[in-house]
C-alpha cells in the first residue's frame, strides 16, 4: 500500500510544530518546515531533533505546494490560521489535505476560511506528554470533512505510532477542554495565595501521579499559548472556567512566557532545566513537639495504611478500632501488606517482625493516652468525626496533636469539637498510604505553629512529602482534581465522546496514570459525588454542580469498580 502523505509541510516551529516535525520524520515522511522569517526559522531549527537531511527548512510558504498534507501549528488566532491556509489553498493542488493543530478554535471556522471545507481536519497533539509507546492524537472532523480524508489522516496517525481518537468539533475537543480548565484553575489557586507554586505542583505530581505539575506544564506550553487558547475557548463558550486568570495576562505582558523565555512560574537555565529546589514545605523553621508514639483511630483501608507506615518508620503505633474483631482484622491486614513487601523483595523479613512488634491494636480509646500524635481515619462523615474528636479530647494527654485524615471535610469542624482547637490539624494521606508519598498538611485559623511544625516533622519522618495549605474544601489536590473529573462525566453525558475515548485522550495523550472516568470508578462514584457536593456547597459555583449522570449512577447503585459497574463495566 502506498504511504499516505509522503511529504508533509508544517507551518510554525513552536513546541507543537517541532514535536510534529520529529514525529513525521520518525514515521518516514519528508518534511517541509516553514517559518515566517529567518530568526524564527533558526530558533525552530535549533529545537528540532530530526536529522537536517530529512527536513527542508524554509521561509517560503510556496514550498508547501509540494506537500500532500499541510499542517498549521501557528499561534492560536483565528485570522492568522485562516490567512495561512487560504494562501496554501492558492498554492497547493486540489488534492492536498489541510490540518490545524488548534486547541480552542473551531476547526469548522478554520476550514471555511481555508477554502477547503471538505479536506480540512483538526490534529490535536499533546507534545508535552511524557514519552510513551503509543500516545494519543485527537482527529477532529467537521460536518463537511470527507470521510476518506478522515480515514487517511487516522491511518497517518497510526503509521506514526500513535492512537487516533476521532472527536467532534466541540470547544477544546476532549483534551483541551478538560486540560485548559484544570490549568486555569491552578493559576487561580496560586493567584489567590491559597497555596504556593511548589505546593500546587508537588501536590498534583505526587498526589495524582501526573507527569508534570500544572504550573510547570503551563511554563512548558508557553504562557502566551495558554492564554490564547483560554481566550479562544472563553470566546466560544462564555464559560467562566476558561476566562484566563489575570496572572496569566500579567505575566505574558511582562514577557514571562515560560521555558522559551527562560522564566515563567519558574526560572530556567540552559536546556530548559528549572533552577532552584522545591520549597513546598513551611519555608522557614517552625517549632515541633517531640513525637514518640503515634495513634491511629479507624480500621478501614486508610487507617490500616497509615498504621503500617508509622510502624515501618520506627514509631510505636497504637491502632484503635470499633471492636476487637475489627482491631484484629486491621492488624492482619497490616501484616499481609508487609508480607507482600517481603515477597517482592522490598522489605527485609526482620523489618516485618520489627514493624509488627511496634504495632498494637484494640478497641479502647484510653490506649491513646500516651500518644503524642493521633490520626483519625474513620468514615468521611462530619458527625462521626466530631464525636471521635470529642472523645480524643478527653482521652489524650495535653499537648498531643490531633489530626484528621479527611479528604474534603472542614478541619475546623473537628477542631471545634475539642477544647484544644489549636492542637488540631489535617493530615490528608493518599491511598494507598504505604505507597503514595504526599501528605497535605491542613491548618485552620486556630492551628498553632507547634502543631503545624509537628505534622510536617512527622510526615518527613514517615518518608512523605508534606505540602501546606489552609482549611478550604478540597485542600489542593481534590480542589483541582474533582472539577476536572466532574467535567469529564458531563462531557460523557453530553455525547462528546465515549468513555473509552475520553480516558484514552487523557491517559495516552496527556500521560495521566489513568483516564478521568476510570479514576472515578476506582475512587468510588459515591465517594466522588460526596466530595463534589462538598466543593459545590462550599463555593456555590454552578460549574461545580455534580454532573447529573454521576448522581444518577450513584442513585442506581452503580458505584464503580467496587460494585462491578460505574462509568465502565468491571469484572468482579
TrEMBL record:
This protein's record includes keyword Oxidoreductase: yes
Sorted UniProt keywords: Oxidoreductase
Domain 3-hydroxyacyl-CoA dehydrogenase C-terminal residue range list: 172-268, 474-566
SUPFAM superfamilies: 6-phosphogluconate dehydrogenase C-terminal domain-like, NAD(P)-binding Rossmann-fold domains
Pathway assigned in UniProt: Lipid metabolism; butanoate metabolism
Residue ranges occupied by any 3-hydroxyacyl-CoA dehydrogenase NAD binding domain in the UniProt entry: 7-169, 294-470
Entry-linked PANTHER family: 3-HYDROXYACYL-COA DEHYDROGENASE FAMILY PROTEIN, 3-HYDROXYBUTYRYL-COA DEHYDROGENASE
Family the entry assigns: Belongs to the 3-hydroxyacyl-CoA dehydrogenase family.
Protein name according to UniProt: 3-hydroxyacyl-CoA dehydrogenase family protein
Source organism: Streptomyces endocoffeicus
Amino acid at each position: 500500500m502506498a504511504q499516505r502523505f509522503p511529504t508533509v509541510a508544517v507551518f510554525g516551529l513552536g513546541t507543537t510544530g517541532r514535536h510534529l516535525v520529529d514525529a513525521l520524520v520518525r514515521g518516514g515522511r519528508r518534511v517541509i518546515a516553514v517559518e515566517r522569517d529567518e530568526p524564527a526559522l533558526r530558533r525552530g531549527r535549533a529545537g528540532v531533533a530530526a536529522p537536517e537531511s530529512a527536513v527542508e527548512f524554509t521561509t517560503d510558504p510556496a514550498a508547501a505546494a509540494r506537500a500532500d498534507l499541510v499542517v498549521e501549528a501557528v499561534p492560536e488566532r483565528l485570522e492568522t490560521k485562516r490567512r495561512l491556509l487560504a494562501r496554501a489553498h492558492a498554492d497547493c493542488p486540489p488534492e492536498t489535505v489541510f490540518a490545524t493543530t488548534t486547541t480552542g478554535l473551531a476547526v469548522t471556522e478554520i476550514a471555511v476560511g481555508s477554502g477547503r471545507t471538505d479536506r480540512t481536519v483538526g490534529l490535536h497533539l499533546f507534545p508535552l506528554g511524557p514519552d510513551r509507546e503509543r500516545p494519543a492524537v485527537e482527529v477532529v472532523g467537521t460536518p463537511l470533512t470527507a470521510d476518506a480524508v478522515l480515514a487517511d489522516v487516522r491511518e497517518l496517525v497510526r503509521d506514526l505510532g500513535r492512537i487516533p481518537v476521532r472527536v467532534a468539533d466541540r470547544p477544546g475537543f476532549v483534551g483541551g477542554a478538560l486540560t485548559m480548565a484544570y490549568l486555569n484553575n491552578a493559576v487561580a489557586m496560586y493567584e489567590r495565595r491559597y497555596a504556593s507554586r511548589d505546593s500546587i505542583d508537588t501536590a498534583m505530581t505526587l498526589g495524582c501521579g501526573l507527569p508534570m505539575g500544572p504550573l510547570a506544564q503551563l511554563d512548558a506550553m508557553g504562557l502566551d499559548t495558554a492564554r490564547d487558547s483560554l481566550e479562544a475557548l472563553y470566546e466560544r463558550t462564555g464559560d467562566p472556567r476558561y476566562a484566563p486568570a489575570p496572572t496569566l495576562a500579567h505575566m505574558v505582558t511582562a514577557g514571562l512566557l515560560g521555558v522559551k523565555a527562560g522564566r515563567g512560574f519558574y526560572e530556567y537555565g540552559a536546556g530548559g532545566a528549572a533552577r532552584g529546589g522545591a520549597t513546598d514545605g513551611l519555608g522557614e523553621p517552625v517549632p515541633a513537639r517531640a513525637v514518640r508514639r503515634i495513634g491511629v483511630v479507624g480500621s478501614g483501608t486508610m487507617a490500616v495504611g497509615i498504621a503500617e507506615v508509622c510502624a515501618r518508620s520506627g514509631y510505636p503505633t497504637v491502632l484503635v478500632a470499633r471492636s476487637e474483631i475489627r482491631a484484629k482484622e486491621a492488624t492482619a491486614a497490616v501484616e499481609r501488606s508487609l508480607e507482600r513487601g517481603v515477597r517482592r523483595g522490598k522489605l527485609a523479613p526482620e523489618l516485618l517482625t520489627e514493624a509488627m512488634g511496634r504495632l498494637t491494636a484494640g478497641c479502647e480509646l484510653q490506649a491513646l493516652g500516651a500518644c503524642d500524635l493521633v490520626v483519625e481515619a474513620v468514615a468521611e462523615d462530619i458527625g462521626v468525626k466530631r464525636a471521635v474528636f470529642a472523645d480524643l479530647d478527653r482521652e489524650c494527654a495535653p499537648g498531643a496533636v490531633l489530626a484528621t485524615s479527611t479528604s474534603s471535610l472542614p478541619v475546623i469542624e473537628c477542631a471545634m469539637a475539642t477544647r484544644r482547637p489549636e492542637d488540631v490539624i489535617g493530615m490528608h494521606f493518599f491511598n494507598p498510604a504505604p505507597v503514595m508519598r504526599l501528605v497535605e498538611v491542613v491548618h485552620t485559623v486556630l492551628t498553632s505553629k507547634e502543631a503545624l511544625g509537628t505534622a510536617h516533622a512527622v510526615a518527613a519522618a514517615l518518608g512523605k512529602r508534606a505540602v501546606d495549605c489552609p482549611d478550604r474544601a478540597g485542600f489542593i489536590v481534590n480542589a483541582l482534581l474533582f472539577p476536572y473529573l466532574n467535567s469529564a462525566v458531563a462531557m460523557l453525558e453530553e455525547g462528546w465522546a465515549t468513555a473509552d475515548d475520553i480516558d484514552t485522550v487523557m491517559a495516552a495523550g496527556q500521560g495521566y496514570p489513568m483516564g478521568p472516568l476510570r479514576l472515578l470508578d476506582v475512587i468510588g462514584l459515591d465517594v466522588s459525588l460526596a466530595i463534589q457536593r462538598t466543593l459545590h456547597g462550599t463555593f456555590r459555583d454552578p460549574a461545580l454542580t455534580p454532573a447529573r449522570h454521576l448522581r444518577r449512577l450513584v442513585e442506581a447503585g452503580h458505584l464503580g469498580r467496587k460494585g462491578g459497574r460505574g462509568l465502565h463495566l468491571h469484572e468482579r
